[in-house]
Amino acid sequence: MNVNMSWRRASRALAMSAVLVLSMAAVDGAPPRYFKMKSVQVIDKGGFAKPTPAMDVLVPSDWTFEGGVQWANRGCFADLAAVTFKTTSPDGKIVIEAFPSFSWQAVDNPSVQRYLIAENQEGLKVGLKPCPVFGPVPAADVLRKRVIPQLRPGKEIAAMDTSADLDRAIKTRVAAIQAQQSKSGQPVQVRADAARARLKYDLDGAPVEEWIIGVSMAQASPSGDGHGGHRLDCRAIMLMSMRAPAGQLEANEKLFDAVRGSIQVEPDWQRQYLAIVSQLSAAQNQQRAARDQIRAKFQQDEIAAINGVVANSQAGANQAVAGESQIIRGVETYRDPGTGKQYELDSKYGNAWMGNGNQVILSDDPNLNPSSVAPGSWTPMEHVQAQP
């Protein structure tokens, strides 16, 4: 997904054993708080010839974890596979979930826009779910109008704001993607924003609160319509939630961010997935060429514009999926001075130590003595200038 694969392999190896120190401030002489994390995987059991790891994530070592991949026609080809997971604290009171991304499309050429809508209407006649056609939507509206009504029907939104860490990570990654595209000569523009909804309701007779976060991303690329038009591939990504007893969300926010920041899509799974998406898109374009009954509804001078857009549709969709992978991460790069290896770690802590083989300690306290948290020999890791 346009991310250096050697860094991904290194970070997955590193994730096998980690300690995340969330607060070094002692309270009434109590020892510092920290979380021991374990590396888990979401396995795709039915998409390919054999079960294939689709996603890696770090969760607290004593929490339960379940995840899966469901393949179905959800409209846009980029949404063919729905990846989800859920992890729960031992007492069942804190739950973190990840929900599937979803897509929609738009073009700024009215003729092509009408064509895509007509194509969706024809597909509905034979039971095909359409790839929705409308423009970019702010993240708050994505949550308010689509995500929460579907995932938490009947639950009212108590507040809508944004996560400062997530918003900052998104802006940094979008700037990096833009810089990368500029260097490669690919005229692609990316914009994204984040939102966070707070829900309050009763569950099993007890008051709970829940954050649901989401990012809305729009990636614009030349449509190839011969008139300077653009195609917009839009996605709602980073859809996650954390539920906790009323009044305990903020106390667990860093844990939520740590789990979110550790998510990595497996490159081998992604490669196979995008190959299937490409094949489906190619078949769709062949069908488009044969549907004269739809094209006859448009003026002949508009046919060339339609041909240009559909010919470029797959590149736009793949770029949007790649952009999602980069925005979703919220990491920064460190180097092990002993080996020279580089690792992508959660960006919120600012300090990291390597030791005991493949273990790492992350902390927001630069004066932490890592041996006080975990016995062993620890070496400070070096910050590396981030690359897109």
Characterization of this structure:
The structure is a single chain. The protein is α+β, with helices and mostly antiparallel strands and 388 residues long. It has helices spanning 5-14, 110-125, 139-151, 164-184, 253-261, 267-290, 292-295, 300-311, 313-327, and strands at residues 17-23, 33-44, 52-60, 64-71, 81-88, 95-98, 102-107, 157-161, 189-203, 206-222, 230-245, 264-265, 331-335, 342-346, 351-355, 359-363, 378-380, 382-384. The protein has one domain (5-334). It is built from 9 helices and 18 strands. It is globular.
Low-confidence stretches: 1-17, 23-32
Q: Give the overall average pLDDT.
A: 78
Beta fraction of the residues? 25-35%
SSE string, helices as H and strands as E = HEEEEEEEHHEHEEEHEHHHHEEEEEE
User: Which overall shape is indicated by the principal axes computed on the Cα atoms?
Assistant: globular
Helical content, roughly? 25-40%
Strand element count: 18
* Tally of separate helices: 9
Major sheet size, sense and barrel closure:
8 strands, antiparallel
The overall number of domains is 1
Rg, Cα atoms, Å? 23 Å
SSE class: alpha+beta
Distance between the termini: 11 Å
